[in-house]
Amino acid sequence: MGKKYEASVKLVDKPHYTLADAMPLVKKAAFAKFDETVELAIRLGVDPKHADQMVRGTVVLPHGLGKTKRVIVIASGDKVREGREAGADEVGGDDLVQRIQGGWLEFDAVVATPDMMKSVGRLGKVLGPRGLMPNPKTGTVTLDVAKAVRELKAGKVEFRVDKTAIIHCPVGKVSFEAAKLADNAHALITSVVKAKPASAKGKYVKSIVISSTMGPGFRIDPASVEAA
Length: 228
Description:
By secondary structure, the chain is an alpha/beta fold.
């Protein structure tokens, strides 16, 4: 890994890039034998210890993430059929809750109707640490089950600031065209900017770095994105 990484680091020859300039270099700098994930790290001028400065939200990436999410729906009544017709991988009620309690975790996202949240609440210890707990803020606790399933299947991703005030979020794979990666990254940054808390003071987007799983980071000029 040493020599390959050293060679890829040499591609970082400027202090800042635009998204359009950085993406071809991110692709070129990726040297692993697998299709590396391209990820953005956005450092924000917020203090996540304060609830009113917590930044979280969702964005539908225009070109998806290169894999179809396995989405399950926990619902009752007509919403079971609605979830199935929308393309959910598994649909059920308390039976599905029991399967998950029993250790079944073969899914990437959970949509639940409000009336089922009492049952889903029992899964907090299982789903919470994995970031899979349905939440009204991210549109995964809803009566519009069909819309939620379609958006998740289309490439909807959730972002959330961590305790160091950084948002880490994937925007695609190295195999994507550079322009599509740039589109996805721009959509994510725009959504993060829109989610700025009213209580955040001073500079909001402090830095943006884009990299592949194994490759070096390329710093994006925040002004170039905000002006686009």
